[in-house]
Input
Amino acid sequence: MEHIIRPVRADDWEKSKELRLVALSDPVAPIAFLDTYEKASAQPDSYWQERARASSEACSVITFVAEAPDGMWDGTLTVLVELPDAEGETVFGGAPSVPQTHIVGVFVRPEARGKGLIQALFEAAVAWSWRLSDPGVERIRLFVHEDNGRALSVYRNAGFVPSGLTVAMPDDPQAKEYELELVRPAG
Output
């Protein structure tokens, strides 16, 4: 099965909503997402339409999907641009010291796992991040819960390494999230 990896378009909001709700039903959702199925499913259509529209503009956020030949979405991830001079705070704390992107919302349907989709999604996210010239992104980061060994293995296989930063989970200060990073190659 050959998937196409592509950015979400504004008119994709219904598929975006459907896949997000599937992701939030996954057994590891409580440690993998800062959202719940109950909260997300209660959002009005306008919420999902705005998410898809914002991603389609690819200015400060972009979502990539793995689309099967039959149109089914089997995987997704989102990339956020984080700038040192940005107003407010980024996910998990203060403003970064360098221009960076932040990968969030990584999910592949269980029946589509092991087929290279996650690697293809990461390749798209990394390529998009390094192509940003204004700002010139210096690193890509993501966070993984200490108990999410499946995700940690995937991220390490994609080339991410621990940065040394550990943060407490917003809803459980006893639980830890590890920051992993991929630094722009020199040259």
